[in-house]
Amino acid sequence: MKRILALGVLAGGLALGPAFSAEPANPAASAAARAVLDYFHSLGRGPTPRILSGQFADFGHRANLRLLEQIHEKTGRWPGLIGVDYADFPRGGLTFEAPNKAGIEYWKQGGLVTVSAHLYNPANPKGGGLRDPGVNLADLLAPGTETHRRWMQELDQLATGLQALRAAGVVVLWRPFHEMNGGWFWWGAKDPDTFIGVWRHMFDYFTTTKGLDNLLWVYGPNHGKNTATYYAGDRYVDLVGLDAYTDFVDREHIKGYDEVAALPKPFGFTEFGPHGSQNPPGNFDYRRFLEGIQKHFPKTCFFKCWNAKWSLGANEFTKEMLNEPVVANREDLPAALFKAAAPAGASRPGARGWPGPK
Question: What domains can be seen in the chain, in order of their start residue?
């Protein structure tokens, strides 16, 4: 059954614009998670569609708010969405303390949070192995095997981090197994049915066993071929997107949009970086990105730029891009999204109401 949210019914009585509907993949999703999902659905609706800005902060122990602060100093705007990753590359494992600290701080300041994980390979007894070839995904779900035992330990580690965010009231856009249609990570370019089984197993374990009702599940393939082939189904995904690294934001250079945009979920660029996946010069005109997605990828309602020299802080004309009326930043997010999750008596400074025209 779909829920219909009419004008003014979100927590706190905030007017949300025209009526719209959304149903989370997890039927037991929290009120706060439902409110955030409704917000993403609303971005592409009504007379003034919006595109939510986002910025990846960093991996593991390096995750913090410094890059977001630099962007604010440069542009006068805070990205609406912060991204962090649980990968602990020096140890070949996972860590969530610094990513969670950054996510919780940004949430308390009125921003949304997305979490990814460059997962270590459970088939590798030494840990690490992000780019190990030849992994049989079916072994992850084969009870009695060492690969399955290590996979369940990895899931428990991830769940511990995500549960800490739940305890802090943070809704998480959870983006596992990113770029699964490419062959560069150990989980990538595998048999689609087997991959979908692994995704659904994680979903069921996190939602049912671990009680993670604060997650919205994000499907993020790389642009190119087979972009919808690994989609686990409407009951297992809340948002969809593409990862793309290119200076040219058009259909010739970013492929696979039609297949993903046809899925009945809000669409965004789950990762974007100018130039390419290696050695960007840091001189990209970010107005070209916005112009390109408006012209060629009209269903886009959010984006997240990668860090380092791909970032909003390192490139050019980001102030002009973030100040475009179509772009929604942190200060444009509805206060009601955070009231739905806040402890009693908590306040959220600096929030405005529904992101209408500036």
Answer: 3-339 (3.20.20.80)
